[in-house]
Amino acid sequence: MMLYLIGLLSGALFGLGLVLSGMINPAKVLGFLDVFGAWDPSLALVMAGALAVFAPGLWFWRTKHGQCVLGTDLPKVAAPVIDGRLLLGASIFGAGWGMAGICPGPAIGLAASLQWQVGVFILAMGAGFWLVGRLTVAGSGKL
User: Fold this and answer.
1) Where do the domains of the chain lie?
2) Are 20 and 83 in contact (CB under 8 A)?
3) d(Cα 81, Cα 38) in Å, to the nearest integer?
4) What is the pLDDT of residues 39-98, one digit of tens each?
């Protein structure tokens, strides 16, 4: 039960940060992506601020405790593997983000606006999740 509560609070804090920083506004996100036009660096500042809070906390927690707040071991993160599957997925994600100005986190927050464009984005995102699940060879993690 405590794990769900911590997850809910973490998600609410993340969502609040998105709303307060204006990152659920597609025009603001598209302004960040417009590096050769009227570039808006505020998204980079939001990310830098989040990393400035998160990174020292993670470092401290890993070196001093080695366990999560609930007492379980912190998960080990495998070395990243840059392969065709990752590059294809990142390209599709980036193209969708660039066309819509929305990524999955803000899309959930924008769902409350009842804008049809957000609904289309969420449906497309769900279709992408479903398609990857269907295309992935059972158990192998490969397309």
Assistant:
1) 1-77, 78-143
2) no
3) 35
4) 888 888 888 988 998 888 888 877 777 777 777 777 777 878 888 888 888 888 888 878
